[in-house]
UniProtKB/TrEMBL annotation:
Keyword Transferase attached: yes
PROSITE patterns attached to this UniProt entry: GNAT (PS51186)
Occurrences of domain N-acetyltransferase (ranges): 8-183
Protein name from the UniProt record: Aminoglycoside 6'-N-acetyltransferase
UniProt KW keywords: Acyltransferase, Antibiotic resistance, Transferase
InterPro entries documented for this protein: Acyl_CoA_acyltransferase (IPR016181), Acyltransferase_MbtK/IucB-like (IPR019432), GNAT_dom (IPR000182)
A molecular function GO annotation: aminoglycoside 6'-N-acetyltransferase activity
Taxonomy, superkingdom: Bacteria
SUPFAM superfamilies xrefs: Acyl-CoA N-acyltransferases (Nat)
Amino acid sequence: MFRADAPITLRRLSRADFAMLSRWLSEPHVARWWNHETSQEAIERDFGPSVDGSDTAEIYIASTEGRDFGLVQRYTFEDNHGYIDELSPLVEVPGPALSIDYFVGEPDALRRGLGAAMIRTLVDATWRDYPAAPCIVVPVSAANAASSRVLERAGFHRVAEGPLTPDNPIDGTAHFVYRIDRPGTTQ
């Protein structure tokens, strides 16, 4: 049983996690929004470069009380200029800003506050690890109400809405954009 009040730890994704990651990506509550292939080849193709360091995205496995439950990744917009271009009609994104992607993979960890706690843990680490980052900006499909709620619980605020390319082709283009600013700064 997962407890929401237990500390969250983050460790870098390794190839030893790939079978678990494939299982999580196959879970209906994750597959609906991530729309990711789960074969061994697809996991290696899409996550192996981050493990090796040739992709700048930093991918973490979140755990509490020694049990893995979710994934969170962060990346800078400076390393993903196309992403800035896509968001620019909706919101200004400073180059040193970051974005994140996340999911709770273990079904019995859902609706326990762990998603927001995992995100807050990464946000706190981001302020330490990226001293020039003024904010974290996250677009979310407007259809994904759970993702919006978890960001709000983690301290993010909705700053824009509009059309973006969906991660899952079955979703429309309507998206919300969330932002959290470095403590002590304003938007």
